[in-house]
Design brief:
By secondary structure, this protein is α/β, with parallel strands linked by helices. It is built from nine helices and eleven strands. Helix 5 packs parallel to helix 8.
């Protein structure tokens, strides 16, 4: 399926991209969701697994547990994507409830910080990136990390539960991460939900921010709202081509063939 690139205000996007290019890598940081943003929503029309789906599909998960997980998904996913319910109404429920190499390597080789803000499973995200050899030192992750008891059994998650609608500075205000990035006043934000729009809230000294939204599901129903909220909307895009193209434009010209293959 052919991807579609949409912009409500192309002139404004051009201005922001120009400012990001002028600032270059010295002023840039990237803040991104993971599931269905840096990972694919679908491939050749078939839905791809999220970090939670990897647990669902594991052979070590019992059939009883699998059925319970499926029931939870069917209950909570419609709540998460319901456009008629406010974020405040969804919060209680949420608490209960590829070009990837070029992207990662480009940011690493240009020393651009990548902050991954995920409501998924942090342990799985890290393992995926390690196996793909893209878990570089410039990456910082805030996500849900599993906690195990002395016998190695999963007993829950560490700290505050991160869900679609609390992805902002309130869950990482004590980390000091953004304070270490003084001078990184330009932000490229990547997300696939309305909740991802707040991921840069609380970042000090922001001068320019370009928000790119991946619209993967219920496209007709959500298109207008996404176009009102994101600067660039990518419909049914199974790649990171647009993002990589922007990075190539913003960052100093280098041997991009080398970056893609490294």
């Amino acid at each position: 399926m052919k991807a579609t690139v949409l912009m409500r205000q192309p002139g404004r996007v051009q201005e922001i991209v120009g400012a990001l290019r002028k600032g270059g890598g010295d002023r840039l940081q990237v803040i991104s969701d993971f599931d269905m943003t840096l990972s694919r929503f679908a491939y050749n029309g078939k839905r791809c697994p999220s970090s939670y789906n990897i647990l669902d599909n594991s052979k070590i998960i019992s059939e009883e547990c699998r059925e319970e997980l499926k029931a939870l998904l069917h209950h909570y996913y419609p709540i998460e994507i319901d456009p008629h319910r406010t974020i405040k109404e969804k919060l209680p429920d949420m608490v209960e409830w590829d070009g990837y190499k070029t992207f990662f390597n480009t940011l690493s080789q240009n020393s651009v910080p990548l902050f991954i803000f995920s409501a998924g499973v942090g342990d799985i995200l890290e393992e995926i990136m390690r196996q793909r050899k893209v878990f570089h030192p410039n990456i910082h992750i805030v996500s849900n990390y599993m906690e195990f008891d002395e016998d190695g059994f999963l007993k829950g998650f560490k700290g505050q539960l991160i869900h679609t609608y609390n992805k902002n500075s309130s869950v990482c205000e004590n980390s000091g991460y953004f304070e270490q990035l003084q001078g990184k006043t330009n932000i490229l934000l990547l997300g696939d939900s309305m909740g991802d729009l707040t991921m840069a809230d609380g970042v000090p000294g922001v001068e320019n921010i370009l928000k790119i939204g991946f619209l993967n599901d219920k496209v007709e129903e959500r298109r207008e709202r996404y176009m009102d909220s994101y600067d660039i909307v990518l419909e049914k895009d199974e790649t990171l081509d647009v993002v990589n193209g922007l990075l190539q434009h913003i960052l100093p010209q280098r041997d991009w063939t080398e970056i893609q293959g490294s």
